[in-house]
Design goal:
The complex is a heterodimer of chains A (259) and B (105). Chain A has 259 residues and is mainly alpha-helical. Helices cover 42% and strands 7% of the residues of chain A. Chain A has 2 domains: 121 residues, Cytochrome c-like domain (Cytochrome Bc1 Complex, Chain D, domain 2), CATH 1.10.760; 85 residues, Cytochrome c-like domain (Cytochrome Bc1 Complex, Chain D, domain 2), CATH 1.10.760. Chain A is globular and about 50 Å long. The N and C termini of chain A lie far apart (41 Å). The N terminus of chain A is likely disordered. Classes of the chains: A mainly alpha (259), B mainly beta (105). Chains A and B meet through helix 4 of A and strand 1 of B.
Chain lengths: 259, 105
């Protein structure tokens, strides 16, 4: 009997890891990490006078209106007041029509800086880039994620799904083994969520500061003792698109509070 | 001057109890390090002092156990119109000062 059970569990495991299985084709029910916050942390996330991510949002708002680079233009010179950014973050990552490349918010900001502001790109995890992304993401708070996965995005989507379902690292674990099979269960002191990035950039207590989704992905990879990619790597961009598709309909709550 | 966020009503009735919230960006470096790790000297905000119309109404001492970007909330009784001045001081002597004006009717 015990042997039969073990075989059955093994078969289920294989089915989930197979990228073409039914469970992965249709979107599963998503549990954002916000659902698993303590009452106190949830209240802190929702109260903008206490949410420490708002310090970076303020910086982003300042930078939005400040001229940068040789062009002497600010973001606002072309895009107008930041209020016009409502809903933008919910549609990223997306294909840039001009270059046919997949861009996330960070990539879009840097593309604008290089091409239009004639300013150097901002590095991941600098306060400036975190501030701008946090500010833009905040303007989509409460809005459902809705990304395009057809057309030129298709190949990115497929590689994202492949990374999501591939075992990696010394632990030999794929993303799905925690973030599909064990959602709602404990991993050390925290509850495993569906692994969607709807709260990022997020203020993470472990970091004592705000960080990008790619930094969080690195933390997961380091956790399974894999060699992490660099922030902004094409692998992470593809995974970011796949995560966003999984999160379709889930509301954004950046800058969120995470443990 | 470090980035900070202060929430305080602009107006209040005399005798009313008002809530004040103050948040500041600071890494709060504890100075405690594991063996073999780089040692970075302690640099925390050690004091927040708040005056209202020139008189101190609130003072907080912080210690290395306090998390980065410290947040405090407290209440006070509105008495007269005047400036509420927030002064945070860290171990390097850097001061961040913010002033808000409360109008009391």
């Amino acid at each position: 009997m015990r042997a039969h059970l073990a075989i059955a569990v093994g078969l289920i495991g294989t089915a989930v890891l197979d990228g073409t299985s039914h469970a992965e084709q249709s979107r599963p029910t998503i549990h954002s990490a916000t659902e698993y916050l303590s009452v106190g942390m949830h209240a802190e996330q929702d109260d903008e006078s206490r949410n420490r991510g708002m310090l970076w949002v303020d910086l982003g708002e300042t930078l939005w209106n400040e001229p940068a680079g040789q062009s002497g233009k600010s973001c606002a010179s072309c895009h107008g007041a930041s209020e016009h950014l409502n809903g933008i973050a919910a549609r990223y990552p997306r294909i840039d029509p001009a270059t046919a490349q997949l861009l996330n918010l960070e990539g879009r900001i840097n593309q604008c800086r290089i091409n239009h502001q004639k300013a150097p790109a901002l590095a991941y995890e600098t306060n400036e880039l975190l501030g701008l992304t946090a500010m833009i993401a905040r303007h989509s708070r409460g809005m459902p994620v809705n990304v395009e996965i057809g057309g030129l995005a298709q190949s990115y989507f497929e590689s994202g799904r492949q990374l999501w379902t591939t075992r990696q690292g010394q632990m030999n674990l794929a993303c799905v083994q925690c973030h599909v099979d064990n959602v709602g269960r404990k991993l050390r002191g925290d509850t495993i969520s569906s692994g969607v990035g709807t709260g990022y950039p997020a203020y993470r207590l472990e970091w004592q500061g705000i960080g990008s989704l790619h930094r969080r992905l690195r933390a997961c990879q380091i956790g399974v003792r894999a060699v992490p990619f660099e922030q902004g790597a094409p692998e992470y961009l593809a995974l970011e698109l796949y995560l966003a598709w999984r999160a379709t309909g889930t509301t954004l709550d950046a800058p969120a509070l995470r443990r | 001057m470090r980035p900070s966020r202060i929430v305080i009503p602009e107006t209040a009735k005399a005798g009313e109890v008002i809530e004040i919230k103050a948040l500041i960006q600071h890494p709060m470096v504890t100075g405690h390090t594991a063996a073999g790790a780089n040692t970075e000297p302690r640099d925390i905000i050690h004091t927040l002092a708040v005056t209202y119309d020139g008189a101190e109404i609130f003072r907080a001492d912080f210690f290395p156990g306090v998390a980065a970007n410290p947040y405090v909330a407290f209440t006070t009784r509105a008495t007269v119109s005047g400036d509420v001045v927030f002064t945070w001081t860290d171990d390097k002597g850097e001061e961040t000062r913010q002033t808000r004006t409360l109008r009391v009717s």
